[in-house]
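Lay summary. Proteins are chains of building blocks that fold into shapes, and those shapes determine what they do. In this project we predict the shape from the chain. Here is one chain we studied, written as its sequence of building blocks.
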Amino acid sequence: MSEHQCTALRLAASGVPPLPLRAGKLPFGNCPACARNACGGRPNMKTPGPCTCPAPCHGWAAATTDPHVINSQTWARAWREAAAVAYHPGGAGLTVVDLDNAEAISWARASLPATRIVLTTRGEHWIYQGTMPSSNAVRPGVDIKSLTQYARWLGPGTGTTAPLPDTVRALAVKEPSTARRAPQRLTMPLRGGQGECRHRTPAYLDRGIAMAEQRITEARSGVHSTVYRTFLAVLSTHGRCGCLTDAHIARLFTAAQTKGESPRHCTDAWTNARTALGM
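And here is the predicted shape, written in a compact code that computers can read:
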């Protein structure tokens, strides 16, 4: 039995569904019977389908916690050729925030709650308890891997797994196609509510606003959606305790308008973000 197969069995026993990866961190291709989804199952690997192929087919959807499947003869060749082990975070009730570079890691340290961290070859995986849709390139150097994706297994990491925060969920949310229009004369939106303040220090809020300004300023494409997602992230973290001031909001609007956004779009994006969060 190979080392990768042993690792897979340990993961399965702990409730984490593994799958083998070939060279290049890629899943094994579908078997001849399932090629081009001829079996009718798992179209585009987005949702589980009726296919019951015993081979490690269909990418992330092949992940399993069944030791009989992992030890089966149909998986034996895959384990002999495997270059690594991956797992399906969503199948384990987890979300992985994949940080690919030092800038992304700095952003996470300033913007996200502490959680379990796994070192990778280029950066870090921040692991949270909870699932959400997967999404690539939600900001420079940041991918989200949860449902319908796999992540490479690189060890258990360090730290305590925290609940999935709204700040991460907001990264994958796209702005509604039809904006909720506000009067043109509204130049400064309302502040947040008066809930419990969860900020560790005032500097935490200041860093969050600075990182939000930087995210908008450094957007190379999709500025419209970047502004909305940034507003959503700021409100999800700071919008319910009343700490946001007109000065903070003005800084965000100024950054967006410097990138070419109109005052009306800034107001619409802020209003849509508040509506999405029920504020």
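What the prediction tells us: The CA atoms of residues 134 and 145 lie 5 Å apart.
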